[in-house]
Amino acid sequence: MYLNIDAAKDITYDAIVIGSGVSGGWAAKELTEKGLKVLMLERGKPLEHITGYENAMKAPWEKKYNGRLTVKQKETHPFLSRDYPYNEMTEKYWMNDMESLYEEKKRFDWYRPDIVGGKSIMWGRQSYRWSDLDFEANLKDGIAVDWPIRYKDIAPWYSYVEKHVGISGEKLGLPQLPDSEFLPPMDMYFVEKEVRKRLEKEFPGRVMTIGRVANLSHAAKHHLEQGRASCQYRNLCSLGCPYGAYFSTQSSTLPPAVKTGRLTLRPHSMVSEIIYDDQKQRATGVKVVDTQTLQEREFFARIIFVCAGAIGSTVTLLNSKSNRFPNGLGNDSGELGHNLMDHHFRIGASGTWEGGLDTYYFGRRANGIYIPRYRNIGKDKRDYLRGFGYQGGGSRQGWQRNIAEYAFGAEFKEALTRPGAWTIGFGGFGETLPYHENRMYLHPEKKDKFGIPIVVFDADLRENEHKMRVDMMNDAAEMLERSGVKNVNTYDRGSYLGMAIHEMGTARMGRDPKTSVLNAYNQVHAVKNVFVTDGACMTSASCVNPSLTYMALTARAADHAVKELNRKNL
Amino acid sequence: MRLSAVLGVAFTEPLMAGVMGKKTYSGPVVAPTAVQEALVAEIADVIIPTTSTPGAKAAGAHHFIIRVIRDCYEQKDQEEFYAGVNRIAQKAKSQFNKEFVDLTDTQKKQLVQDAADHDKAFFGHMKSLTVTGYFTSEIGATQALDYLPIPGRFEGSYPLKPDQKTWAL
Questions:
Q1: Is the CB of B23 inside 8 Å of chain A's CB atoms?
Q2: Which residue of A283, A324, B130, B141 has the fewest C-beta atoms within 10 A of its own C-beta?
Q3: Which residues lie below 8 Å from residue B21, measured CB to CB, with a gap of 6+?
Q4: Where are the alpha helices (DSSP H) in A215-365?
Q5: pLDDT confidence of residue B27
Q6: CB neighbour list of residue A521: distance below 8 Å, 6 or more residues apart
């Protein structure tokens, strides 16, 4: 049992980690393994690995509504109910919006988990390395501020985390999407293989590969030793995996941290602020609200890792006011809460494949295909900055499809019991620029039930993103059509910031304390014993999924933190 | 990202009323009568009848339909749904002078076809809920479809055997 809820005597630790998601889990693992006594604080409730995944083995007939939301769910989750991740099967993983409403000057979809493990339980698991195309982008374009790191600084840390996590994928040798330490790639669907052959011939320089995903396509010895097994291809990952086959805090970073005997995990613990000591000129601990009793208490440590999710971490910093930092801890630059980014998506094209009807598939692959960025690379020059990649994939239609010939009856039923046509679609994921004007901030008066000011969002897509979306839609249709796909239809369902759940940038890294919040090792410039290693730290958004980069940055920051502690610099 | 989001499948409606400050309705639910519940089962069984495998009624699809209408539909939509059920019952009486359940299969089909042609909103709800209710029921998933909860491996190109049914999952 790793929970130590009543830790009354133990209020002083070497390190405090705020949050237990992707970043917090890595911080706890690295810091405990390096010998530190760590307190991990999680706002949500406990979620035990395997036994806590109550819906993971349920048959379809055990679902009450099969994906539909109840009127009651819509009332208690006015924000979350606007999109798919929240449903009857994941009900307990997400926070009740009513516990802490937020305000939208512009719509922002903020997905707040309510469990130990955070979003590492429900995440999409797509895992890609960033490249110098990303790390040099702001400098080259004269946008925002330069990243204080380059690919060479993070590359060894990518390798380090990938070996532990287990990333399935295909080696390509592309400069804009460096290869990871891969487990074997997953197979492509028949239709994907057909389209890939034609697409890569029709469009030299464009590549269609299998998604790189944090699922164990083949569990290595060290994964088995962690208690993890290979993927069973059930495609129910977001319910929690009873086989530990995908990376989550519970499956991958918590077990080694617990094994050290140096981790204390305290759920139901909402950090309201970081305590800054004006005399010592350092952070000394945190104030915590118990979400069940609403009682306040304090914990102390030499270093603090803030990993509460981009928005959560920024709220914590903004709410940590002192004489030295009247506008929030580390907010000398005034950038805290600004430069809010996410990926924009929900746009692309799809169609059907004629033929291949004697071929079916076996198993359910929790992964799609990926087309790495090709726009604004080399000689390609568009009327917008940066670019996009595509995620998507093929399948064969099942019983959910529409049957044009029959409205109902025996023929209708029989038709649905046989597989339909092969289909394939590409959906773009585009980079959003870091605009100072895109921001979130604390409401000056309104507070939630925990006494913490509520968040106000004021951020939107702008001209560069809208121009890019034209290409995102048209390129998808063009590639599908020229690859032999029929009945190609484009779509644009509109993208609101937050929906991709890749929110980032609100406490950015940079070289200059006047224009950024964090330094090259994710330390708050003016409070070196506070590290922020989740999405808040990102200086630009790239167009590839960010979680793997959070992991690598966290492991790198933890290494730096312990070295600095040993050098007595912290 | 869920794959269906990229493939053009609509799976949730934009339900923004609560956020936009509009009152979402969660007042008293419409309690269907036993007759109405039986009618839902009968209509579902016309949409998905017994063939070489049991139909919607035997699979209990109506339990799913009634539950979804009760818990997921707002009161106005519940009332509209049962008004559609009543219209079919009334037509059975006016055209055949019988209860729907006592009609011949041909007569039942005629009335459901009539709803498909002229009562499209009601028929759309009824059909979509019947299909989901049936193919996610134990009978539908395991007998009408091929049910394989733990595949253990993935092959993207797999020979389609003559007796292969649609995967249930």
A1: no
A2: A324
A3: none
A4: 221-225, 254-259, 310-318
A5: 52
A6: A531, A556, A557, A560, A561
The ipTM value here is 0.93
CA-based nearest distance B142→chain A, Å = 10
* pLDDT grade for B5, boundaries at 50, 70 and 90: very low
pLDDT, residue B17, reads 36
User: Chain A residue closest to B27 (CA)?
Assistant: A71
Model confidence pTM above 0.90: yes
- What is the model's pLDDT at position B125? 97
Residue A188 predicted with pLDDT over 80: yes
Question: Rounded to whole angstroms, how far apart are CA atoms A307 and A120?
Answer: 12
Residue of chain B whose Cα is closest to the Cα of A364: B154
Averaged pLDDT of chain A: 96
How far apart (Å, rounded) are the C-alpha atoms in residues A329 and A526?
Answer: 9
Cβ partners under 8 Å of residue A418, min gap 6: B165, B166
Say what the pLDDT of residue B31 is.
86
Q: What is the mean pLDDT of residues A328-347?
A: 98
The distance of B38 to chain A (nearest Cα, Å) reads 19
pLDDT at residue B26 greater than cutoff 80: no
Kindly list the distances between the CA atom of residue A269 and the CA atoms of A26, A288, A291, A425, B72, in Å, as whole numbers in the listed order: 19, 6, 6, 42, 33
Least confident of A129-138, A419-428, B14-23, B44-53: B14-23
From the number of C-beta atoms within 10 Å of its C-beta (0-12, 13-18, 19+), residue A379 rates as exposed
Cβ-defined contact of A69 to B11 (cutoff 8 Å)? no
Report the distance separating Cα A370 and Cα A170, nearest Å. 11
SS3 A283: strand
User: Are B157 and A418 a contacting pair at CB < 8 A?
Assistant: no
- What's the full length of chain A, in residues? 570
Tokens of A502: 């890749």
CA–CA dist A342, A541 (Å, integer)? 7
- What is the three-class DSSP state of B100? helix
Q: Residue A405: pLDDT band by 50, 70, 90 thresholds? A: confident
Query: How far, in Å, CA of A457 to CA of B121, rounded?
Result: 38
Residues contacting residue A85 through CB under 8 Å, at least 6 positions apart = A94, A111, A122, A238, A501
B7 vs A contacts (CB less than 8 Å): 350, 392-393, 395, 423-425
Closest approach of B153 to chain A, Cα-based (Å):
6
8 Å CB contact between A103 and A124 = no
Q: Is residue A4 over pLDDT 60?
A: no
**CB proximity list for A348: less than 8 A, separation 6 or greater:** A390, A392, A425, A426, A427, A428, A472, A473, A476, A490, A491, B6
- B6 with A359: Cβ contact below 8 A: no
Report how many Cβ contacts below 8 Å link chain A to chain B: 207
Q: Give DSSP secondary structure letters for B12-45.
A: S----TTTTTPPPP--PPP---HHHHHHHHHHHH
At residue B30, the pLDDT reads 79
What is the percentage of chain A residues whose pLDDT exceeds 70? 98
Q: Other C-beta atoms within 10 Å of A83: how many?
A: 19
Instruction: Give me the pLDDT at residue A6, please.
Output: 52
Residue A67's pLDDT is 85
C-alpha distance from B150 to closest chain A C-alpha (Å) = 6
Token duo for residue A396: 């064969």
Q: Would you state the pLDDT for residue A147?
A: 98
Asked whether the CA dihedral A250, A252, A255, A258 is positive or negative, the reply is: negative
Cα A362 to Cα A383: distance, rounded to the nearest angstrom: 43
Q: The tokens of B87 are what?
A: 């219209």
Give the Cβ contact number of residue B45 at 10 Å.
24
pLDDT given for residue B57 in this prediction: 98
Phi, psi of A375 (to 5 degrees): -85, 145
Token pair, residue A525, equals 């410039």
Instruction: Give Cα A298 distance to the centre of its chain.
Output: 29
